[in-house]
UniProtKB/TrEMBL annotation, chain A:
Residues 28-161 form the NADH:ubiquinone oxidoreductase 30kDa subunit domain. It comes from Niastella caeni. Belongs to the complex I 30 kDa subunit family. One of its GO terms (molecular function) is quinone binding. It catalyses: a quinone + NADH + 5 H(+)(in) = a quinol + NAD(+) + 4 H(+)(out). NDH-1 shuttles electrons from NADH, via FMN and iron-sulfur (Fe-S) centers, to quinones in the respiratory chain. This is NADH-quinone oxidoreductase. Pfam families: Complex1_30kDa.
Amino acid sequence: MTKEELKEHITNFQPNAVFDETGEWLNVQVEATEWKPFAQWLRNDLLNMDYLFCLTCIDWAQTAAGKTQAPSNSPPAGGGGVLTMVYHFSSTVFRHTIVVKVKLDRNNPEIETVSDLWRTAEFHEREVFDLFGVRFLHHPDLRRLVLADDFEGHPLRKDFDDPVNMIKL
Amino acid sequence: MYRETQIINSGHTILSAGGDLGGAADGGELVINVGPQHPATHGVLHLVITLQGETIQKIEPHLGYIHRSIEKMCESLSYRQFIYVTSRMDYLSAHINNHACALCVEKGLQLEIPPRARVIRVLMDELTRIASHELWWGAMAMDLGAFTPFFYAFRERETINDIMEETCGARLTMNYMVPGGVMYDIHPNFQKRVKDFIQLFNNKIDEYDDLVTGNIIFQNRTKGVGVLTKEDAISFGCTGPVGRGSGVPCDIRKLYPYEVYDKVSFDEIIETGGDSYARYLVRIKEMRQSIRIVEQLIDNIPDGEFQAKTKAVLKLPKGEFYSRVETARGELGVYIVSEGGTTPYRIKFRSPGFSNLSALDHISRGSKIGDLMAIMGTLDLVIPDIDR
């Protein structure tokens, strides 16, 4: 399907989805509460998005919008900010690709897991939990993946600072 | 210290591989550790395996022993610098990692690269693929108890390393591909040496088949072992020879051709067995296809510039860019989020090994512990690529 057809088809199911067509692929933004039914629909609908090839997260704390809460050593108390979950889907049958984005509250990031729909998500979600601190509800085994269990903090967050192991250059 | 915590939490008696097997009875289950230092894990991967007798009940991979947080490091490196870090992810496909990053930056800059650079890049990629598959072939056979293939494979791989050394100045982490093309022109000896290598390798690959592929002991140890169905391969995001061994057409070179892959003729190797033997066959046949590509291009390197003119400091426009290439292990994706600065705001590497590893538990359940070596061998995991 072309971008336009995809857009129309998705709007029929999810009328309040927000689209962004500037990039290479169609970007769809949905609310966190609507994410799970939408994901189920993507997987099972005739769109047949069976291949989740990239799952990651972006911390927007240092962008122009987020800069108002000056990045200091301590994270802004109740300062808000946004984490965005990014899912890249593609269909191995029809070869169309879409990117789904879900905005989460940075202080209390929670989203439903999709590891029951795409099994690769189990590891990817553990990685995001580890490095960003996003909690995936109903995940079968939500533990840190690459870092030690007693590690404090989430390194890929923009305000993470480790004075011992320098990762900034 | 945290490893001990996990051991207590799991509620089992855990023994090291050489431990006292007598004290393990816990409902008949035995939990053993393979790795992080184990010859068959090919790197620092730690597997906690629950056994019932000799049968695998569950495999829990513990990662992170070589986690360097490459994604975080890249956030403070410029678009020219970050490429060099990526050679250290999948160190057997260093060229192809660099290639993916260069492609992503070029996509952001909307930069056309000269035809000469395109062909050189593809040649280097395919030589890398052969070198990587050779190392896999030798190591895989050694895991299953055949020692000779390891020496054979390294003998031919050495020739490729020498070619790389002459042109790129390095044998493993080449850092040869830069945004805009390649760092410097090929060495005057390059074409002759590659042709010598093709001649040598065409004889040797038949020898590989005689030595291992047709070997009945090898076939018995790999056929029907670690079966991954097509549906599961897609669901687990398995790509590369692992996906194609299960019948998933997932070769990025065919699906989303980059550089000159749409102008050369080669076959996408697909096996439908889904077992370790199918994955083995895919890689062996892929080596022949790589040779085919190299043969077509080696005498047809266009004249001209090897690098496009670029500014000293690269700035990507605000936006998101995604590039994907086919490494020796599967689909490598580079996802750059730019805020318009000189460094990436966020960068994500979708590494093939990470997704392929996630299928390990699923395909190993019910197999015997001895079969794990065949399964691990044909998944062809490179641990720095998984941990990043």
